[in-house]
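Anyone? Bumping this.
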Amino acid sequence: MNKSIQLKSNFNEKQIQILEVAETLFAEKGFDGTSIRNIAKVAKINVAMVSYYFGSKERLLESLIVYRTSDLKNQLDNLLQEDLEPIDKINKLIELYINRINSNRGIYRILHFEFTSKKREQNLQAFSELKKGNLKSLETIIEEGQKKGIFRKDVIIPLITPTILGTFFHFHMNKPFFENLLNLKTEDLYNNYIKTNLTKHIQQTIKALLIYES
Amino acid sequence: MNKSIQLKSNFNEKQIQILEVAETLFAEKGFDGTSIRNIAKVAKINVAMVSYYFGSKERLLESLIVYRTSDLKNQLDNLLQEDLEPIDKINKLIELYINRINSNRGIYRILHFEFTSKKREQNLQAFSELKKGNLKSLETIIEEGQKKGIFRKDVIIPLITPTILGTFFHFHMNKPFFENLLNLKTEDLYNNYIKTNLTKHIQQTIKALLIYES
DNA sequence: ATAAAAACTAAACAGTTGTTTGAATTAAAC
DNA sequence: GTTTAATTCAAACAACTGTTTAGTTTTTAT
């Protein structure tokens, strides 16, 4: 059996079954807060299967990241090649980010939570490359807008991603607080608020920051 | 030695010693990732002392939050009463937030990490009240600016805090990435970047979002 | 100096942790 | 149909978890 990290998503059904349960539990209770026995119970498999298929709990996490983040780059490249005004590209990029993170909440929560501490820095490499690529795409769009004289030139481009993603994450990480504050009683209301108001707020913010007013 | 400093909190020296070690370790490795024996070893105390002084590991966390967040409200109230233009108040508020979080990274990292999962919702009450108070202060300032015709009226006020704090957190949570990207080789350079560029970026962003342009 | 209270300790408790083992079952190859 | 390989399993492993206990030392009050 192949216990090494698999770069493409050539996971078999059993592995995917384990990965998806792990995603749910890691997202819910954190990596350290989730035990292999817990995963095994929910996935209805034997405890030994995690070691058998992935080698270790740590490598299960690595595999999960590969499994979930392999196609973001393509989506971004497609966006770049569309024939749109820079500001519309930015708006679409924000929408893409939020949609993607919102419909893959589990893995992004895990990434957000687990990949900050020093102890997982060795696994950070692939994730870091992904982030650099994303930044490059954003940079391309903004420089295009600056050349056209539409965008200001005194913005710090690498800090725009933190504003986009940070706003979303901070909102989402404080879900119970905002559910209560904004009366979003059902999951549907909450999701709808993200899709409309939160997305609009972020777009409005980034636009205000970028657009040059004479 | 200097007992006059701890006028407010009713924790004794030993408790504070434990709390500060716990803060460091919880921030570094998370609540679940830190064991009582680990805390005891670093704090050079017996394992039983945590139970003795705080009752349980969970209650140690609660005490830590009380110990670290008890004086934020006063700082905000003082700011509100200053005689400043709304936009200057906003800028000062952003500076206050960032300074405070930045010099209490440990506890805010813990709050950020531990108080999102459902399982700690019972401890969430006090923290939630603190956040609501903070939002009220921000609201007061913004409404003042709107009355004066300086601020736009179509901004969603509860989403401004996520933009301020989210930007900072996302930057700080991805510290290794940005250290590398922006060549912030020393801790001093990193801190300086936060104090100048990141703070300015956030102020610039919020100003752009708020200021009404005819 | 003596008694009561507080602080501290090593050891034990009962669970849980990630991982490995060796045998049993199933599937694939011949 | 037999052999070989892949999969699954219960059980065991040693290490670690939060907490309690019962006894000792230190501090405080009288």
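Late reply, but here is one note on the structure posted above: The first helix of chain B runs from residue 13 to 29.
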